[in-house]
Amino acid sequence: MAEEREILKEELETFEQHRDKLLKEHQGKFVLIKGRKVIDTFESERDALKEGYRRFGGEPFLIKQVLQFDPPLDFTLNILGGCLASTD
């Protein structure tokens, strides 16, 4: 995860710089960011992803939902899922 954040560091900074404006105009939508440029916003993550691949191919780009607060990442269920299997 840290390596991924480093790859998209510029894009994440761009998101934070534009967060207030994006919240006012596009809350709940998905934003496509490449480098220091906000490319566009989309109703669905899938549409943003398709446009990102169309424009940038295999180059890294960021798609992020425009929310007031980032939801906490919770991998507990995925990690524990295998451990909670019945041993009967």
How would you characterize this protein structure?
The chain has 88 residues and is α+β, with helices and mostly antiparallel strands. It has one domain (2-83). 50% of the residues lie in helices and 17% in strands. It is built from four helices and three strands, in the order ααββαβα. Strands 2-1-3 form a three-stranded antiparallel beta sheet. A hairpin with a 2-residue loop joins β1 (30-34) and β2. It starts with a helix and ends in a 5-residue tail after the last helix. The relative contact order is 0.17. Mean pLDDT is 85; it is low at 83-88.
Supply database-style keywords.
88 residues, alpha+beta, 4 helices, globular, disordered C terminus
Spell out the blueprint of helices and strands.
Elements: H1 2-7, H2 9-26, E1 30-34, E2 37-42, H3 45-56, E3 62-65, H4 76-83
Antiparallel strand pairs: 1-2, 1-3
